[in-house]
Amino acid sequence: MILAKVLSGAFCLVLVAAAGASAAASARIGALTFICSKGDVHPTDAGYRAMAAAFLTASGYAKSS
Fold first, then answer.
1. Rounded to an integer, what distance in angstroms lies between the CA atom of residue 50 and that of residue 11?
2. What gap in Å lies between CA 42 and CA 15, rounded to an integer?
3. 25-64 burial code (b ≥16 CB/10 A, e <16)
4. What is the pLDDT at residue 2?
5. Coil, strand, or helix at residue 40?
6. Radius of gyration of the chain (CA)
7. pLDDT digits over 26-52, tens only?
8. Are 9 and 36 spatial neighbours (Cβ–Cβ below 8 Å)?
9. Angstrom distance (rounded) from CA 65 to CA 18
10. What are the backbone dihedrals phi and psi of residue 53, each rounded to the nearest 5 degrees, phi first?
C-alpha cells in the first residue's frame, strides 16, 4: 500500500492494523517509522536504535559502555 498523504496518528494505526498487525505492533510501527507522521516507511531515530540493538544482540558481542 502506498500512502499518498500524511495520515494522522489514530487513523494511521488503524490502517496498519488492517494490514494484519496487532494494535501493539501498529503502535510500535508508528513509533519506529515515519509511516504515520509523514507517510514514509523509513525509520525514526528510535527505529534506527531498535535496529542497531537487534544487530548487536544477533551478533553475540557484548554491549560496550
1. 24
2. 17
3. ebbbbbebbebbeeeeeeebeebeeeeeeeeeeeeeeeee
4. 40
5. strand
6. 14
7. 778 778 888 778 878 899 999 999 999
8. yes
9. 40
10. -65, -40
Task: Name the more confident of 42 and 9.
Answer: 42
Residue 12 has a CB neighbour count (10 Å cut-off) of: 19
What is the rounded CA–CA span in Å between residue 61 and residue 30? 29
Contact, 43 vs 51, CB < 8 A?
yes
pLDDT of residue 48: 94
Q: What DSSP state is assigned to residue 63? A: P
pLDDT of residue 25: 74
In this prediction, residue 18 carries a pLDDT of 60
* Cβ(38)–Cβ(4) below 8 Å: no
